[in-house]
Design goal:
4-stranded antiparallel beta sheet; 27% strand; Nuclear Transport Factor 2, Chain: A; alpha+beta
Length: 95
Amino acid sequence: MCGGIAVAHPLDPLTADEIVVAANALLAGGAAQRGAIFQSVELREPSKAAVLNGSAGERQAMVFWRQNKQSAEHLRRSVVNTAASDTSRRRAPRA
């Protein structure tokens, strides 16, 4: 169980609850404001070694988002710990 959310395997896709937790963490922490567009929320996979030795720890979500209707060059990338709701934010690299 991770942050009250049952997880069968560390590489399972994020649950709907984890996705909501990630988006709400960005909003509550002030990184994103009301009107933010969350383009992608996906599992930030732990290392292979951590999975194999059972030390994968807390799950993290990689969130790609932008504020309001900003262009793709304003795309932000944040990593959210789905259990503790801490975030690290940085601008996504241009494709």
